[in-house]
Amino acid sequence: MLMRVPAARSSFHGDGNSGATEDTPLLGPNSKPLSSQPKTFANVFIAIVGAGVLGLPYAFKRAGWMTSLLTLFLVALLTCRCMMLLVYTRRKLEYPNGLTKISSFGDLGFTVCGSLGRFVVDALVVLSQTGFCIGYLIFIGNTSCNLFLPSSASNKFFIWVCLPFQLGLNSIATLTHLAPLSIFADVVDLGAIGVVLTQDLTQLLNHSPPVEAFGDLSMFFYSLGVAVYSFEGIGMVLPLESEAKEKDKFGMILGLTMIFIFFLYAGFGTLGYLAFGEETKDVITDNFGAGFLTALIKLGLCVNLFFTFPLMMNPVYEIVERRFCGETYCLWLRWVLVLMVSLAAVLVPNFADFLSLVGSSVCCALGFVLPALFHLLVFKEEMDRATRYSDLAIVLSGVVLGVSGTWCALLEIFAVKA
């Protein structure tokens, strides 16, 4: 979300067959063995938890720890609800009507709203995936600068150093050789979270700086954007539900996973802010002093995100190539997209501010507005008044929170640049 873990994004990966049309699902029938409840729990966890967690302590600093905890709880609740709305909508369309298998969010958008629905979903997927990759490059640049050139205030050098290597990695037409790196990404993410929590606790026991429980209203929207980014994983819910062995218990497993992630995020953000107070930086690992373990974790995260970049860009390539190149591999188009993402990363000054922008603008629409809207359109003839009002409230809230959060995030970004 990421990270966003690469395997978790496979819902957007096509099979490369030519002659695809607007109503061709991005995924063919899944022949893999169905997932047990523990495996489904792990897959949902992997699909959601990623590099965005590193920006949570900074968001806690900006909005206050109590405001941020309430925001995290709200976002977790809404995300879980909207994920299940997609599942209910797919089940309603598939099973009674015998429609072609709806494998992805884009397929569902086409089934509900035709070509316009797929176009909107595709556009938001492109924006969200490129947004994640921009965040990765910002993190790599900032962390590399902190490790190797601590006296320099600019991360641009390291972002441009990544460019030629990313051009090479993104030239690979198939992800087969890169897929095993997803396991490495999972291990590094979890290891980094564990080490950071340990470092935060040690720092807190040695020194307890003053902290604020509440910030002003604009910082609530800022915190909301970071939280939405951190919980983003809406594109994975349909493939995960398809792979679940006990589909009637998928909602329960999803809910338990979201509760676990909420407490993990709450502890991570709160401990990070309580440990460093107003000195909390936009990437929490930048607060740690020199040391072999700290340097190893930072380097591991950079390597992780470096190799995750082409995996996260793959859905973008498939959508763009399907629309403009007739499903044909296009090297120059991929290179142009990588160059544009790198340029955007150079122009954005702050990691957490950018998380807030992507979370507020794109992820609110993709994660809240569209699931509730699709559910409302499909069930409108049979839903009761309470459910209708609930869907309308989610759509309206998603729009209001998205616009307000985007505005606040842009103010923060340009305030830093000024």
What does this entry look like structurally?
This protein has helices at residues 37-48, 56-63, 65-94, 105-148, 156-169, 181-206, 217-231, 237-243, 250-276, 292-324, 331-347, 351-379, 385-417. Helices cover 71% and strands 0% of the residues. The longest helix has 44 residues, at 105-148. Helix 12 (351-379) packs antiparallel against helix 13 (385-417). The chain is globular. The two termini are 28 Å apart. With 418 residues, the protein is mainly alpha-helical. The chain contains 13 helices and no strands. The chain has a single domain (6-417), classed as Up-down Bundle (Amino acid/polyamine transporter I), CATH 1.20.1740.10.
Helices, strands, pairings?
Layout: H1 37-48, H2 56-63, H3 65-94, H4 105-148, H5 156-169, H6 181-206, H7 217-231, H8 237-243, H9 250-276, H10 292-324, H11 331-347, H12 351-379, H13 385-417
Structural class comes to mainly alpha
The CATH H-level homologous superfamily: Amino acid/polyamine transporter I
Secondary-structure arrangement, i.e. CATH architecture: Up-down Bundle
Judging from the principal axes of the Cα atoms, what is the shape? globular
